[in-house]
UniProtKB/TrEMBL annotation:
GO terms for biological process: cell differentiation. Gene3D superfamilies: EF-hand. This is Calcineurin B homologous protein 3. The keyword Lyase does not apply. GO terms for cellular component: cytoplasm; lamellipodium; nucleus; ruffle membrane. The lineage of its organism: Eukaryota, Metazoa, Chordata, Craniata, Vertebrata. InterPro entries: CHP3, EF-hand-dom_pair, EF_Hand_1_Ca_BS, EF_hand_dom. Residues 68-103 form the EF-hand domain. One of its GO terms (molecular function) is calcium ion binding. The keyword RNA-binding does not apply. Its main location: other. It holds the Pfam family EF-hand_1.
Amino acid sequence: RKENFDSIPDLEFNPIRGKIVHAFFDKRNLRQASDGLVDEINFEDFLTIMSYFRPIEMNMDEEQLDRFRKEKLKFLFHMYDSDHDGKITLQEYRTVVEELLSGNPHLEKESARSIADGAMMEAASICVGQMGPDQVYEGITFEDFLKMWQGIDIETKMHVRFLNMETIAHCY
């Protein structure tokens, strides 16, 4: 249950703690066909979510690495797409940026909003190109999200490494 995550010390001070916990209960991340949330997860569901954070394996070929990368990015995309409509809107992105920067006492909410607005304009220029004055960028789709993350090493940054028994055996 969500309240069980309250006792995880490393999440306590994370500014996007709510989004991380929410992601554990998002049916899309549990690889279920529908969207929405579940009230509780079992051990298998927990492992499914943790699989998004596994490190890359050295023997992966290009196709496996590409699929692995897309799975991680899909997980992140779902964290930002809080209304489950398949787009990260300006308002959703503003919320994430404000949460991420909430711990900085020198940064006002309006500054965080300006940062989010600028990033969304950059996303539009990357994904749509030059827009006309009457055109509106409705939000970042998953395909746009993939373009934006191109060249960024998400595979090695978004992982949790656990000790294995071989590591412990070498310590003696």
